[in-house]
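Mods, move this if it's the wrong board.
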Amino acid sequence: MNESRRRRLTLLAMCVATFMMQTDVTIVNVALPSIQRDLHMAPGELEWVISAYALALAALIPLGGGLGDRYGRKRVFLVGITVFALGSVACALSRSAGALIAFRVVQGVGGAAMLALPLSIITETFPAERRAGAIGTWAALGGLGFGVGPVAGGILLTFFSWASVFWVNIPFAAIAVVATLAAVRESRNPHSRRLDGPGAAASALGLVAVTLGLVESASHPWGSWPVAGPLAIGALFLAGFALWERHTPRAMVPPSLLGARSFVSASGIYLVCYTALSGVLFYVTLLYQDFVGWSVLRTGLSWLFLNGPFMLMAQLTGRLDRRYSTARVVTAGCVAAAIGIFALSRASTTTPFVLTAAGYICCGGGFGTFVPAVTHVAMRDVPRGASGAASGLVNASRQVGTSVGLAVLGSLGVNVGGARISAVINASYRQAATAAFVHGYQLAVGAGAACLIIAAVIALLGLRQPGEAGGEPEAGIRDNVRKAGSGRTP
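Not the wrong board. Structure tokens:
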């Protein structure tokens, strides 16, 4: 196999695996009403169908990156795909809420080993002059999976049961395994340090406890033990993790990465943006299926208004960078997404769909503008030998945003909606429930728009090159992001 073909197959394996992972998050969103009815799940349990998966990813992705650096990236990647596929089969066969949530954790464990390594494998496979294009293609296709999920889920659920949204992962996993075995070369960091077991355990337990407390706040007062207890325990574990990382010689977060401003800023942008997106997907799906009365197919097809602009802007982002710096391109994308999400926050059961469609278009175009550029710029200043850890942490920031964000916005919407419904008198239950949901929906999705504004500020201040002024970026950076946005591969 010649080198060019090997690189293309390697990129295919990474794109298919990441596309599958991101699709899995949103395709399950569309199936939530069907899952809730079939398995008789409470609202808190329903949130855990999403959060358990995303949280396992977030907690273990940094560990997956370290395992890949130490024991071989190809080997760990293949193990991750296998575990993820087995977890998907188990989810499809689940017949209770507890079993489904448990097997979503299994999916997340496999996904963590898999998703931690694509950036590192691509970095090791492609020469520097072609790396940006490969990373841009990977980021765009992976991000596309987030939007394709609802469409695919709507089509599948029209003809099959909710289990089909898990069975669909199997052919993708098979393609990724075959391409990986055929093309990916084994690589590892020969100077890799021992794994930071205590750090990994402390961060995982802290994230789990905090998310548990936030999810429980939907059905318990904030001062009650089910909420305050996990939040306090989680805060202690996370504080202990931060203290441990400052003093251990084998930190899970290498100190050199914390000095890479573009890496820290890009991770922060992903954290905040996916905090918003996870909540928006959750609430918009419930609004149109449970309260407007749309079918799953119609709900899924409506997401084409988001997918199309995403793909278009992912391809055009490089052209924008011929005139503007990466910081300004990312900032503009975040602002556009914020406008779109704000438009979505104004929707209700009586709002014309044209408003929602406009929100989808702005949101999809905004994410398509900044996702490829952010992914590439995250690795710009990463020291040599730390690519595995950096790749894992960048992806972990996205998954932390997805899991904790859904818990935060979900709790916000449910608490406000619950207070609203208790105040409604002399109205039928259905009318009160609808009014309560819409009120909570608008506040939670509006908070998502605020998250994107925060991301825009981080981009404007944190991604700017030292000494950069005006709109013209440095030639080297401009060329790299142009390649990333165009999606060109060797």
